Amino acid sequence: MATIRLISLGCSKNTVDSEVITGNLQQAGHEILDDHSARNPQVIIVNTCGFIGDAKEESIQYILQSEHLKKKHRIEKVVVMGCLVQRHLEELVAEFPDVDAWFGVHEKDELLKFLSEDFEQTNLHTRLLSTPAHYA
To answer: What is the mean pLDDT of the chain?
Structure first.
């Protein structure tokens, strides 16, 4: 199984989507690295934003950084998902040829299958919380 870092940008929906994906990946046996880990993952997933200006720019920067790490053989795969992909897939594919896979906002199962061949279906209640469990 792979070591994976997921970078979540944009709105709170992206945060929840990222928590569902990391929870399911962890349940499938992958190791999820947090942002503070000094270790390089094998796979970086960038969950992009296609609406908030600063988050769109940050998404592009993280994709560029991830491609750079891949070219230097410090990671094996770059996966990009989210609403930026949903809105601008053709342009992104042309601009970032070293990205291994692209997934829109409704393709969580496809992303999980890409990373875990024997993965059957997303369990939307399996989340790896990145925020406190309490709320007001």
So the answer is: 88
